[in-house]
Design a protein that fits this description.
- With 208 residues, the protein is α+β, with helices and mostly antiparallel strands.
- It has six helices and eight strands; from the N terminus they run E-H-E-H-E-E-H-E-H-E-H-E-E-H.
- It has a four-stranded antiparallel sheet, with helices on both faces. The protein has a four-stranded antiparallel sheet with strand order 5-6-8-7.
- Strand 3 (66-72) and strand 4 (77-83) form a beta hairpin.
- The longest helix has 17 residues, at 188-204.
- The relative contact order is 0.17.
Length: 208
């Protein structure tokens, strides 16, 4: 049983039907089991950070899921679990909630901190972005969309939602830290559609 006095379930979200591009992005960046297109994943952010090790242990023992990420950054713990079977992710989710004696209503609801659409990205800015991106290259002249949210882990769901609804390229998904950030590019119309879909998901995800 987790000590409730200082435990915080900051983010907790199940993502069904992992989209091809976002799956590929995770495959290139995670240190554990590689997610593939069509998988279901469970993503969580919590504090204190070291609680992530016990939470992942509980999930792995309760369901046939695999760990893709298990990270402790400066303040919080972050995890990602994957399975090709949605019911196994549900079992892992329920086991975690049972262990911490909380419900989905006890997670922190995401806050959309900012959104931007930058048309016709200038060549020098594109080159700067390409220095640290882990996904697709930013091509000068494309439109770029940027979304920022808190808690950070919810940006994973936003990225998958953007790809579901628009023909965009995923440039970067930063899901740990104080804020989560998503960078996408494409035509202006598709980027605006992707930003709108991702923003709407963040605004409608329930929590306290």
């Amino acid at each position: 049983m987790t000590d409730q006095s200082n435990f915080s379930l900051r983010a907790f979200v199940q993502i069904d039907r992992l989209q091809p591009q976002f799956a590929a992005y995770n495959g290139a960046t995670v240190l554990g089991s590689v997610p593939i297109s069509g998988d279901s994943i469970l993503v969580g952010e919590l504090g204190p950070g070291n609680e992530v090790f016990r939470i992942v242990d509980v999930a792995l023992k309760a369901a046939r899921v695999e760990a893709s990420s298990q990270i402790v950054e400066r303040e919080f713990g972050f995890f990602m679990l994957r399975s090709q079977v949605n019911s196994e992710i549900l079992a892992a989710r329920d086991a975690i909630l049972g262990h911490i004696s909380l419900s989905l209503d006890d997670r922190i609801a995401p806050v959309l901190e900012s959104e931007q659409v930058i048309t016709s990205v200038e060549p020098y800015q594109a080159q700067l972005l390409n220095k640290w991106r882990k996904g697709s290259l930013v091509v000068p002249g494309e439109t770029m969309g940027i979304i920022e949210c808190s808690p950070a882990a919810y940006i994973t769901a936003a990225a998958n939602e953007a790809e579901k609804h628009a023909s965009i390229k995923i440039v970067e998904v930063r899901a740990v830290g104080r804020f989560g950030r998503l960078f996408i590019t494409g035509s202006e119309g598709e980027v605006r559609t992707g930003v709108e879909a991702a923003s709407e998901l963040l605004k409608t995800t329930e929590g306290r």
